[in-house]
Amino acid sequence: MIIDRRIKKTRDALSDALLSLLPTTPLNKITIKSIVDIANVSRSTFYVHFDDVFDLYDQTVNELLAGLVNQITADYPDLS
Questions:
Q1: Vertex 48: Cα angle to 67 and 61 (nearest 5)
Q2: Residue range 53-70: average pLDDT?
Q3: How many Å apart are CA 35 and CA 1, to the nearest integer?
Q4: In contact, 35 and 53? CB cutoff 8 Å
Q5: Which PROSITE patterns match (predicted)?
Q6: What pTM does this model have?
Q7: Burial track 41-58 (b if 16+ CB lie within 10 A, e otherwise)
Q8: Rounded Cα gap, residues 13 and 26, in angstroms
Q9: Which of 12, 13, 43, 74 is 20 to 30 A away from residue 56, measured at CA?
Q10: 3-state SS assignment for residue 62
């Protein structure tokens, strides 16, 4: 599936914003406002891509895990 670079950039900015907040703020206390302020995108843009903070979290974790699996299978092809 091909994803437009602008979409990827926006989604990455939102994920990065969430990841920057997680070390100091519990997930259930993170607000969409704090995420969009850090990512420098509008609230409506957030909702184009995600349903809520938990959806962003789930998709971010899944993307990080997929990247980790890809790296491991590339480094150790016998494991796949």
A1: 25
A2: 96
A3: 26
A4: yes
A5: HTH_TETR_2 (PS50977)
A6: 0.88
A7: beeeebeeebeebeebbe
A8: 19
A9: 74
A10: helix
